[in-house]
Amino acid sequence: MTKPLSILTLCLCATFARAANVHVGTTAALTNSVAAAASNDTVWCSNGNYQVYNAEVTDGLVVPAGVTVRSVSGNPADVSFDGQASCRAVTLAASSWLIGVTVSNGNLNEFGAGVYGGSVSNCVITKNVNTYIRRSEKLG
Question: Each residue of 94-112: pLDDT tens digit?
Fold first, then answer.
């Protein structure tokens, strides 16, 4: 009788381990959904411009490990993430994905003003500015 109980337990665990699919249409919903996402979740972005700059952080949209953020249409022209020339637009943790969006207007005093980390597919990354300048420790 332990086998049927084990199979039932396995089935229940598999049911609760399902990945979430969250659909968003506003910057606030995007930011909150991505922050609350767990590994294997996908956040689907409706067409529009998402202004990802937040005055409290320097990294705009921060995508946790294993989370995918993608456009519903798959067309980068339909969904854009705008850093408003004030931050790194998107930071991707290990094993996270950004798919089918345009990332623009990131501005950072180090590497990766538009997108940093993770994996990117079918995206347009444009008009981002890195202002990092490597200088010698001893000027003269």
Answer: 999 999 999 999 998 877 8
In a domain, 96, yes or no: yes
- In contact, 43 and 76? CB cutoff 8 Å: no
Residue 51 is part of which domain span?
A: 19-130
**pTM of this prediction exceeds 0.90:** no
Structural domain contains residue 82: yes
- How far from 92 is each of 2, 67, 89, 95, CA to CA, in Å? 44, 9, 10, 8
Give domain status of residue 3, yes or no: no
User: Can you tell me which residue has the tokens 């339909």?
Assistant: 78
CA separation (Å) from 38 to 35, 106, 116?
Answer: 9, 25, 19
